[in-house]
Amino acid sequence: MRLEKLISLMKDQGFDGALISPGTNLYYLTDLHLHEVGERLTVLVVNARGEYHFLAPSLYENVIRGFPVTFWRDGENPYEKLAWILAELQLPGGRLLIEDTMRADWLINILRLESFEFHPLSSLVKELRMRKDRREIKLMKHAATVADRVFEELLGWNISGIRERELALKIELAVRELSDGISFEPIVASGENAANPHHAPGDRRIRKGDLVILDYGARYKGYCSDITRTIAVGQPDERLVEIYNVVKEAQERAYRAVREGIKAKEVDRAARDTIAGAGYEKYFTHRTGHGLGLDVHEEPYIGPEGEVVLEEGMTFTIEPGIYVPGLGGVRIEDDVAVIDGKGKRLTRAERELIVL
User: Which of 19, 101, 242, 276 has its CA 20 to 30 A from that of 50?
Assistant: First the structure.
């Protein structure tokens, strides 16, 4: 059980316990997905002796099974019940791991109960989540296949003249038809808007001669995919074609650099050196990639300071880009896993420049 692995790490590193609120870490550790808890205090309390107890609103009486649990109803003070659980688990203060994304109002009220020394839960859980097992990679492959299928489908759409936000909605609906939903809000950036790596799709209409960045992903049984392709609508400017070819070469070289035993920053360097060699260094403004799994951004990060040594089962994106203000931009992204000691693409959609 993954929770037992966390408890073992807690003992080894001298933590007294953990407070885990709903999110991907809770799902990873318990297989429990608690939907929309909102402002209602919900937390799994764990001590280093291997004991644990849930506190949850009564809305989840039919969801939380197989765990010691105390439910509370609207009108009751959940922090009084939490204080009782902390006492039962012998956690009157001490070094506690706290979920990184816990609501601030929950944390403020918890601090009033005891004098805790808090540390981020991710500092330990990331050691477990970075290395995916076969089942996890299988789920990620499915999410990646959905992304590929949607790309193939959209190549048949007539997108000339439609607004960016309309195309983003069409992509989202296509993803939802094939999976459990989107892993993030799709990015559609056309023409000069493509010079902004995280452009929010707007009312600009896609025109002949545009390069269009399409960045989206699917979620399947909790696991994410994340793909970016850049396509042309009509024949683009020659400089944009040159930029596209540089980014494609950078992405390929970074992918070929992936293998077990090298540091993440070496993969980043393969992409960055290629772009710098073509004279576009100042237009590559972000890291080469990020880890991928239950979250669309997690460890390991593939950047200039990435000291993580790549190991079997690690999954991440490779997504170099060039963004020239006033002209446009290009990004090409694939999901990659370290399998049998080397990199393997999970997303496999066409990477040559496609002109619609």
Answer: 101
Show which of 102, 128, 154 is a domain's final residue.
Answer: 128
Q: What letter would DSSP give residue 339?
A: E
Residues 181-203 have pLDDT tens digits of: 999 999 999 999 999 999 999 99
Q: Which helix (H) or strand (E) holds 246?
A: helix 238-257
User: Do residues 91 and 76 touch, judged by C-beta distance below 8 A?
Assistant: no
Instruction: Quote the number of domains for the chain.
Output: 2
Neighbours of 181 (CB within 10 A): 11
Residue 153, token pair as written in the block: 């489908």
> From residue 73, how far is each of 40, 68, 98, 102, 332 by CA, in Å?
10, 17, 24, 20, 49
Instruction: Please tell me whether the overall predicted TM-score, pTM, comes out greater than 0.85 for this model.
Output: yes
**Same domain for 331 and 271:** yes
CA 90 to chain centre: 35
Map residue 68 onto helix, strand or coil.
coil
Q: Return the closest-CA partner of residue 252 out of 152, 173, 336.
A: 336
Residue 355 domain flag: no
Mean of all residue pLDDT scores within the chain: 96
The token pair at 99 is 């979920």
**Domain containing residue 174: CATH number:** 3.90.230.10
Segments forming the whole domain that contains residue 10:
2-128
Whole-number Cα distances in Å, 271 to 26, 53, 230 = 35, 47, 17
pLDDT of res. 213: 98
| Joined tokens for residue 169 | 């909605």
C-alpha torsion sign, points 88, 112, 46, 34: positive
Same domain for 205 and 293: yes
Residue in the structure block whose two tokens are 């609501």? 103
Do residues 210 and 276 both lie within one domain?
yes
